[in-house]
Every structure is written in C-alpha cells, then in structure tokens.
Amino acid sequence: MEGYWKAYQPKVVLKYRIRYFCSMYTREQASQLRQQFWTTFGQYLSPQLSAEGWKVNWLNYKTGVKDVYFRMNADNKRGYIAIELTHPDTELQQLVFEQFEEHKTMLHETLGEEWEWVLHASDSTGRVVSRIYKEIAPVNVFDKEDWPALISFLKPRIIALDAFWSDAKYSFEG
C-alpha cells in the first residue's frame, strides 16, 4: 500500500496545487492581476521605439494589414506571442499564410529562432485562424514571480517582430 501512495502522491499534490492556485483569486482579482501584468509589461516597452524610429503601442500593435495581428497572451499555464491571421475566408487566410511562408527564412533570422506554424486551427471562440507562434511554459501570469520570465520572453520577440514587419509589410499590403 505504501508503494501505491508514493506513486499516487505527486499527482494528488499537483492536482491540489492547480485547484488551489486557480481558486485563489476571484474573477475580479484575476482580471486586476492580468491588467497589472500588461501595464507593467507596457512600461518596460514604452521607451522602445519601433524599427522605423516611431513610438509604438506595443500591447496593441497595429500591423496596418486587415486580418493580420501580432498577439501576446499569458494565462495560468503559458505565455505566447503570435502572428495571427483571422480572415473569415479560409482560402484568403491560406494565401496570406503562404505569403508568410515565403518570408519564413527572413522571419526566423530576424527572430533568431524558429516558430510553430499552424494553418487553420480554431481559436477559443471557435473561429478558424492561422498562427505563427512561440510559447513559454510553464509560467503563470497570476504569479508575480513568473513576470520577469514572461517579460523576458515577450519583449525581445515583439521588438523582433516589429523589425521583421518593417521590411516585410509592403508585400502584404493590398
């Protein structure tokens, strides 16, 4: 029986920690913590100018191309940064994805790493999107001790995405 308990115990502890951590905050507290994280992150990025020398709202980055977004997100399990293609017509979405594939080498060289490429996946609302993304896990936006890791992960990647986009955006316009 003791061997059974030892094999079972880590699962129980992990399950307890997850349940405890998720139930630690009310919805309002969780919302405030998320907002606090993004405000802190924005403050770290505010002095950073774009690749073209302009002041940028890094948290709400405008690509200037309809249905092409740079997204950053963090939750209680992971953080990620993505290029997200949201055109409702999946064939047009695929064409834009293929345009990005033509720039894949340049993108990866600018980022200094390879990212995941997913054509036609469902997002949290059930909408079909395509993503080019990189994630960090395990991190928890509700744990302030994880904030430095999240900021260190997101900041250089959004700056690199901007550098890539300053050269590549013209081939996506129109």
Q: Structural class given helices, strands, pairing?
A: alpha+beta
Question: SSE order in H/E notation?
Answer: HHEEHHEEH
Structure summary, number of beta strands: 4
Please summarize the sheet with the most strands: 4 strands, antiparallel
- The global form is globular
Stretches with pLDDT under 50, minimum 5 residues: 1-20
Radius of gyration: 19 Å
Number of helices: 5
Name the beta content range: 15-25%
What's the rounded overall pLDDT mean?
Answer: 89
Distance between the termini: 68 Å
Helix content: 40-55%
Q: Strand order within the widest sheet?
A: 1-2-4-3
Quick overview:
The protein is an alpha+beta fold. It has helices at residues 2-23, 27-45, 90-102, 104-111, 147-168, and strands spanning 68-74, 79-85, 116-122, 128-136.
Secondary structure topology:
Elements: H1 2-23, H2 27-45, E1 68-74, E2 79-85, H3 90-102, H4 104-111, E3 116-122, E4 128-136, H5 147-168
Antiparallel strand pairs: 1-2, 2-4, 3-4
Helix pairs in contact: 4-5
